[in-house]
């Protein structure tokens, strides 16, 4: 036991001695360091013809006729501004201290350097090995192949902290002033247009429509606007392949994309001015991606592989990673996802009266706008409180799909009418040229749901209890008005 304790003590002493030796060695080297100013690289950045470094992978770029190219593959689109910036940073490297008597490069991390940098001009080649950072002062040890070790600003590592894919010229996602249409081709094909005061449906309160030939179906404004925003205002997260051959697209789920998105938009003003300037400089003709109205088309494809999400422009080989939200917005786009939640949406300024059929009786309520930005409602010769009834009608919504264990789940079959009894009917008479009447009928279905029909065409399930509450509200208003006669 005493022997074991003695060994532990001796081991501790050995550790202390080793640490002390390192400190003494370090101090010894520091003592041989001078404050000599040394120019490592001093060239005009425009004269640099080649850059090499190995931050995460080995990359080498050459410049010909002012344009940077990836030395190993001409197919890579190089970010010219970034390479110019790197060249500028590496064109002027100085050292403020040097070690003149170098006994071991390993002490400075230079026997196996973390990084190697090469800067070439037509006349000179500069090769720099980058070792450890100093304990203080924010500097790093470097060597240039002579017998000395130099210290320079550790920011040198930041200057080369770019992988190959960081240097890809990423394609621009345009800034859009407005969007006139979005087409999504997933399992279905959806053509969605934005149009104000279009007359495409009974209510101009709707601004988004699913276009099918000459027919238009109104969509939920909020949900569709969110989809437009998600599909147009995203960013490429990372470039994952600077040139994916057709045989490689399956690695990203893009050999058979899960969805293709095409957006027709008007460019933001600054971007439009830039495009006009570029067009004037190049004297190129307008491409197929633009129209006489100044609209442009932005089209891309999305796919997934190994729980990651990818995209590429329709006619491009550059592949990017994207967020799951963008992928889902494209893949899940459908009429069922975007159809309105409400049964009916009306601008009451367009409604003169509503005809209500309830339990075999027909009641007519007149609606008139007043000066207080409100409405006056009358039944016969009596003024009535009818706003709450209309609010209840507006609040009746189409339920979402229920879970399997929900005892009152929404029926799976499509709603259809077959001699269903009418629960409640409302016909709105309007002061408009088109859709001068709008009819909403609620039919009995089962104890939990009714079927709502809008203008005899659009059928949806709705909560029966909400319809019963609406009937009771109508009865209450009518009874109150007649009881006072």
Structure report:
The chain is an alpha+beta fold. The protein has 9 helices and 28 strands. It has helices spanning 2-31, 80-90, 155-159, 221-232, 269-282, 324-331, 335-338, 387-395, 464-483; strands spanning 33-34, 38-42, 48-54, 58-64, 67-70, 92-95, 97-99, 115-121, 125-133, 139-143, 149-153, 176-185, 189-194, 208-212, 215-218, 238-241, 259-267, 296-305, 308-313, 319-321, 351-358, 361-369, 375-379, 382-384, 422-430, 437-444, 449-454, 458-463. Strands 1-7-11-10-9-8-3-4-5 form a 9-stranded antiparallel sheet. The chain has a 9-stranded antiparallel sheet with strand order 15-14-13-12-17-18-19-20-16. Helix 8 packs antiparallel against helix 9 (464-483). It is elongated.
Describe the secondary-structure layout:
Blueprint: H1 2-31, E1 33-34, E2 38-42, E3 48-54, E4 58-64, E5 67-70, H2 80-90, E6 92-95, E7 97-99, E8 115-121, E9 125-133, E10 139-143, E11 149-153, H3 155-159, E12 176-185, E13 189-194, E14 208-212, E15 215-218, H4 221-232, E16 238-241, E17 259-267, H5 269-282, E18 296-305, E19 308-313, E20 319-321, H6 324-331, H7 335-338, E21 351-358, E22 361-369, E23 375-379, E24 382-384, H8 387-395, E25 422-430, E26 437-444, E27 449-454, E28 458-463, H9 464-483
Antiparallel strand pairs: 1-7, 2-6, 3-4, 3-8, 4-5, 7-11, 8-9, 9-10, 10-11, 12-13, 12-17, 13-14, 14-15, 16-20, 17-18, 18-19, 19-20, 21-22, 21-25, 22-23, 23-24, 25-26, 26-27, 27-28
Helix pairs in contact: 8-9
